[in-house]
Amino acid sequence: MQTDGNPYMIELTAIHKRYLLKQALTDIDLQIRTGTIVGLLGPNGSGKSTLMKMIAGLIYPTSGMIQVAGRTPDVHNKKHIAYLPEIDHLYGWMTVAETLRFLSGFYSDWQADKAAALMETLELDGKQKMRNLSKGMRARLKLITAFARNVPLILLDEPFSGIDPPSRAKIIRSIISEFQSEEQTILLSTHTVSESEPMFDDVIFLHQGRVKLFDSAENLRSTYGCSLENIWEKVYT
Amino acid sequence: MQLDFNSPKPIYSQMVDEVKKALARGELSPGDKIPSHKEQAQISKVNPNTVQRAYQEMEREGLTETLRGQGTFIRKDPALLVHIRSEMAQAAVRQFIEEMQGLGIEPEETERMLRRHLYQEEEG
To answer: CB neighbours of B34 closer than 8 A, spacing ≥ 6?
Structure first.
């Protein structure tokens, strides 16, 4: 994937997305720098998942321009993007180890050694059946499916939703330790800001399909004189 | 590491302060090896780019030095501790004075209260 000379992994210009009668995204302008962890924040229905899917190349904008690593994303971008949807996409009848082996077949960049190491740090048992895993454990496994791949862009849609605090803490620690800050970019959507706040370089606040705020976490904190969590309160209430 | 995300002070700068405090308290000494920025990011669960910025700042201020292939160390400089202590003491005094001013207390009164406190503390 060509990233040389372009400081941005993702560029969105005047993006609109309309579903029949519903305006999902309105006039989105964003530039996401290569080598950063970016938080996509917003309440349910603010357009986070739509934006994620569009960057993943799964849906197309109604109008506007989108570039991911310098090209318009389509289904072929799957090769370069690890996209973790919010919905559960794994089979209940497989074991954890079978699931990872099954997924490894889809990707030429799959790193089995990394998957094994992550199973260890995230405390997952390969023999466990998927259907017997708690929600937190499934979330940890989903994270492995993203980080076992050697890709320049990782999209994590709500990796913390409905998950117990210990699992959340483990996931955050793994994201920080696995992130390759020289070449990788991570876009992570969430509506639980307090714990994820320390992870972010830049932050996008979405509100009703529009970008309400977009800046570095540090600039936002100094402008508002408070944490992202408290900025959230100001933006959405 | 104590980081306050509600503070107007940037996180990288708070991280530099934490290292200075640890030095002033004797928890770190000149010549000590400190974790790599990646390790530190994992330990404190903070964005690796932010930690890297803190490390660059420490190097720029002469607090640390990086030896190729060996890692990052607190600089072996006898004057370093003296310098950090005086810098931190001055910051503490400045903050105290600002707070007293914020309360509308005159300098003479501040001085009197300070003397009284210091004196009592010595007696007690």
So the answer is: B19, B28, B40, B64, B71, B72, B73, B74
